[in-house]
Amino acid sequence: MKPPPFAYAAPGTRAEALALLARHGYDAKVLAGGQSLVPALNFRLARPPVLVDINGIPGLDAIAERDGELSFGALVRHTDAERSALVARRCPPLAKAIGHIGHRTIRNRGTIGGSIAHADPAAELPLVMVALGGRVNAASVRGERWIAASDFFTGYLATALEPDELLVEARFPVLASGATWGFQEYSRRSGDFALAAACVTLSRAGGKVTACSIGVAGGGPVPVRASAAERALIGTDGGSGACLAAASSAASGIEIDGDIHGSAAYRRSLVETVVRRALWTAAGLTS
Amino acid sequence: MGTAESSNRFVGKSIPRLEDRRFVTGTARYIADINMARQGHVAFVRSTQAHATLTKIDASAARSAPGVIAVVTGDELAASGVKPIRTPFATNGYIESDWPALAQGKVRFVGEAIAAVVAESRYLAEDAAELVEVEYDSLPAAVTIDAAMAPGAALVHDHMKGNLYNDDTRSFGEIEVDAAFAQAAFVVEGTFDTQRSAALPIECRGSVADYHAATGRFTLWSSTQLPHVVRHGLADCLGVPHDTVRVLGPDLGGGFGNKANMDPEQVVVCGLARMLGRPVKWLEDRRENLLASTHGQEERITARLAADAEGRFIALETDILLNGGAYSIFPDTPLNELMNCTSSILGPYRMKAYRYRARAVVTTTCPHGPVRGVARSQANFAFERLVETLAAKMNLDSIELRRRNLLLPAEMPCKTLTGLTRDGGDYAGLMDLAVERVGWRRVKAGQAAERAKGRYVGVGLASFAEEGASGTERRIPRQLLSIAGYDGAFVRMDMHGRVVVFSSAAGMGQGIETSFAQIAADELGVAPDHVTIRHNDTDMVPYGMGSTGSRSAVSSGGAVVVAARRVQAKLLTLAAHLLGVDAAAVRLRHGGVEVAADPARFVSIERLAWIAYRRAEGNPPGFEPGLEAVGFYDPPSSVSSGSTHAVVVEVDVETGAVRLLAYVVAEDAGILLNPAIVDGQIRGGAVQGIGKALFEEVRYDPDGQMLNASLMDFLAPTMSEVPPIEVVHMITPSPLTINGARGCGESGIIGSSAAIGNAIIDALGGRGEGLSVLPFTPERVVGLARQLGVRA
Ligand SMILES: Cc1cc2nc3c(=O)[nH]c(=O)nc-3n(C[C@H](O)[C@H](O)[C@H](O)COP(=O)(O)OP(=O)(O)OC[C@H]3O[C@@H](n4cnc5c(N)ncnc54)[C@H](O)[C@@H]3O)c2cc1C
């Protein structure tokens, strides 16, 4: 469990980093918190000839609110976001979700940008980003572009980032005023990747659900929105029966693979459970 | 209860652990910290196939890779004079498997070492290992017990027909088993599958080998629980006299059975050191540890239990199959596991007749080795589940059913049908204590109300007796030819009255440097922090078995008593002479020796020690200089710590998650040398037991690829999954051991699976049946909930 040989570069500026990525293309890998990349190197599952360590680049660690969105520099550590009063006030589902990422030592080192770029299908941040409709800013020597969450996660550990692009910023919309939310996750042990997780928001007016989002992770290769379930829930009273029906629709509507931690059928039942529990939390019902 | 004079003795007190200063300050020295000048670093090329003929090994590219010192294959190692690992084991038709330390001709499990690359660093060695080209001609894998026993299954070893290490049937008892079943009022039966587990020490294995050509001497630093046994095996494999091999170990970061074997890697590094004339170092990484060290405890136990109309057990019949893996481990072989299973399954109960059939199956998987508990938790799981089934069938409270069968204090010491000694304690009292402390009745009384609120809470227990510290009397009939059953100690008090004890035990975190110091302190009138315990060095310590099988407190601790008493006798003789009284008139007290009838007449230990060495004031006639003695202790056949685990669980019937709300272990380990250390042993064991009940399982696919060889997928419990574990003691000194202690290193783990399983079933409103496969994964728990008609 030692990494294969690699060249190591530690650029001091964003421009240098982008130049290195442009030069090495597929041969380069960005090193952020290292919590996913270093194990992959040690198992020799990843063998990038060049590592571009971005930890020395200034200005990538800010958390701020901008135009109805929370903005996170790529190098914001999970713990800093988890403990941010701004995040807790303006986007509480995100704060709650981050608490489920691994253990404290991993959250101290792991970065928001790394989590999103790594795109583990069971990871919390991609789920929240898909559920809330966030976006990322990708920079390269060619310029910058914004990519919506719905276009960003393209497959198992795969994203829309080009090899020369650096994820520099992630944005999450603040919770709409009056909206309620729920985040539920089930994992075998505390700190494990989720077997199933759901992030939901609900807005109601006049006793009816006027808007909702239901994001689900843990079943298939990427986190998804359960759009049929969302449509079915809108217009209902958002009561326990409606939540049950939406959860069941969400579970039956998504792609689910089994693995050594659970068969597809079991995982499907977990998806139904976490979605229902998250909806019940959002609706103020207790399970 | 304790002993009368306990207040002035150190044994029995929870003094802080003397070894902890170096552990908590990060200055302990582990195998990774041992370095030799000019050492080469080893990386193994390991088989990627479960079963295959090796058609070609091409190491030419690897040999010319940067920093490579050598690449050695199995044939080359053999040509250098290294013989395969072979475990003599003379019992009922047991068939040995030869295990070449590096594969020759054929591989039999994924992870088997094929070649060793030695380079200037581990990084370079791993880089070069990737360049070794191995060509395989695949043979069919046989991963499970069923696959290996299926008609027409490929033979893993040509000479082992039917893929069996053994096939052993035995009957015991004053009555005939079939007749007993025929007259039984109740018969219950079940088949129980226990998962393949890993011992998982935090520190993986590792070795540094040095060979001195001019003297022909090998030195092996190794992370091992059994230095003398490893030396024995190594010398045989290397083809050299035993006295030319020295095995020594620094601090161990845990063992749990994983380091109670002589491993092929230990043989390889010694062979390489001899071939290359350079010291060689190998540190196992976690992947290797999970994939290719040892696995254990994958058993299928089919059991039938017969009882009379009152529920008194009459007869037991078991058919036990063990997945023994691809090779027979040294020194235990897979048979040690089977013998523990067949013998311990009778538990702390009376039984009139017993018959077993026991088979260890050869499969194309990692070899079977001991894992803490060694079949006893598996046997306990099967039996205690059957007890619940019987109670359900009789519509009797299972606590009452156990009470009718538990051995009474007045019946002990006695032997079980299989020859285990039950040497006393109040087994029913322990059960009552556990039941009371866990809040059993309160939980039962509130269960219906909780269920109405959608909370599924249940209680469960398991009773057992942990036999440990087996002596030669028990070892010899077991035909474990490579190991005796005794341990040794050499005690030296220096001229300043400070003491060094050289023990054949192996310290691996279990606190022997403290508990043995307490023993020596009591026998020699000194303070424990004036006693240093040295261990893990075959050139330094007397011969003895080492540390496995819950034996150190009794066996190695007993040897410290024997040796220290010899030194004590010299102190008394010398003191009597100096005080001008008869030897019978003096006695030891803390700090010196006094005249019993007139304690004011006293000589200090320091003065006695000075005189014994310097002979300054004239010694008694014939008094040998110095204060040194060696002693051995061969424990009784076996002794047994009675115990009951009782737990409260809450089950989430939708996800299948099991939360432990309370965990109690009631235990009678006899005299507790250091109660805090005993509690630590039991709590640590229970944590591993919780892992076995709920999380841990080595998984293979049908082709023999391990699916979870990392700690991301092999799930061990963390602090978040572990409740506070309450340990309560009854103290009935063992009448059979020299220090009144019993073994308890595995008591923490033995009852966990059964107690937790019984509690889950109770929480779901079941009785008796269900959950016969370990671990109780959430998916299995949900399955049981559905089966019992429970839905949120
Ligand atoms: C024991 C353990 C448990 C864990 N549990 C969880 C969990 O429950 N949930 C969870 O979500 N995660 C979990 N993780 C992963 C953790 O959250 C990681 O921090 C995260 O996945 C990656 O972030 P990082 O900063 O460490 O990235 P790195 O490991 O440095 O990089 C990961 C990948 O992202 C790329 N990358 C990183 N930053 C950028 C960037 N700015 N632009 C472009 N590419 C980039 C890298 O090239 C690499 O391919 C766990 C990790 C461990 C070790």
SS-derived structural category of chain B: alpha+beta
Radius of gyration of chain A (Å)? 19 Å
Instruction: Tell me which oligomeric state these chains represent.
Output: heterodimer
User: Residue-averaged pLDDT of chain B, rounded?
Assistant: 95
Report what the structure shows.
The complex is a heterodimer of chains A (287) and B (792). Chain A has 287 residues and is of the alpha+beta class. Chain A has helices at 14-24, 37-42, 78-82, 85-90, 92-98, 104-109, 112-118, 124-132, 149-152, 227-233, 240-252, 264-283; strands at residues 7-9, 28-31, 50-53, 63-66, 69-73, 135-140, 143-148, 153-155, 158-159, 166-173, 180-186, 196-205, 208-217, 224-225. In chain A, the strands form four sheets. A five-stranded antiparallel sheet of chain A has the order 4-5-10-6-7. Chain A has a four-stranded antiparallel sheet with strand order 11-12-13-14, with helices on both faces. The N and C termini of chain A lie far apart (45 Å). Chain B is an alpha+beta fold. Chain B folds into four domains: 6-29 and 486-633, Aldehyde oxidase/xanthine dehydrogenase, molybdopterin binding domain (Aldehyde Oxidoreductase, domain 4, 2-Layer Sandwich), CATH 3.30.365; 47-139, Aldehyde oxidase/xanthine dehydrogenase, a/b hammerhead (Aldehyde Oxidoreductase, domain 3), CATH 3.90.1170; 205-284, Aldehyde oxidase/xanthine dehydrogenase, molybdopterin binding domain (Aldehyde Oxidoreductase, domain 4), CATH 3.30.365; 299-471 and 636-787, 2-Layer Sandwich (Aldehyde Oxidoreductase, domain 4), CATH 3.30.365.10. A seven-stranded mixed sheet of chain B has the order 3-5-1-12-9-10-11, sandwiched between helices. A five-stranded mixed sheet of chain B has the order 7-15-14-13-8. Chain B is globular. The A-B interface holds A 1-5, 39, 43-44, 186, 188-192, 260-263, 266, 269-270, 273, 287 and B 122-123, 126-127, 130, 285-287, 454, 654-657, 695, 699, 707-708, 710, 712-713, 715, 717-718, 720-721, 777-779, 782, 792. Flavin-adenine dinucleotide is lined by residues 29-37, 39, 74, 101-102, 106, 110-111, 113-115, 117-118, 120, 123-125, 161, 166-167, 191, 193 of chain A.
